[in-house]
């Protein structure tokens, strides 16, 4: 009688373990597909072409293409929108900022809200992240740079200034963006 109970217990345990193993395999497959799908979405929404797909971003895309970090025509490293406009200090911060920024832009586009971009230029440091600059510009006091730049970068690295990268390099991402935005407004009013 005890042998029969032991056998039944083993059979139940075997099927119970099988269900657990099957559930685990299915869970791992779903998790893997979900993660791959999410990575694909993050990559797709991180391209300059995706950012420029909103009509309000066209002028920024054109200004970026013509700027030093645009399409690399001037021999300088190409920086995508997300390289400058999202933090790169850690993955959680990056994904959070991307989600918040994307949601704000989507809601603004749906409801037709047009920010005062020229006025926002005064707060440009709020829309860029130094961790993005530092990701590429690792050595700020490299040999051969002009002495004025060396002194400014040295003060920055020693924490002797409150200036940020964008304080001194305002036109690096989009060239003279104020002029382009002004021209866009003039052209729009002329229509």
Automatic annotation (TrEMBL):
Heme 2 binds at residues 81, 84-85, 174. Its main location: membrane. Its cofactor is heme. One of its GO terms (biological process) is denitrification pathway. It is a single-pass membrane protein. Binds 4 heme groups per subunit. It holds the Pfam family Cytochrom_NNT. Residues 24-175 form the NapC/NirT cytochrome c N-terminal domain. Binds 4 heme groups per subunit. Signal peptide: none annotated. It is found in: Cell membrane. Heme 3 binds at residues 133, 137. Belongs to the NapC/NirT/NrfH family. This is Cytochrome c-type protein.
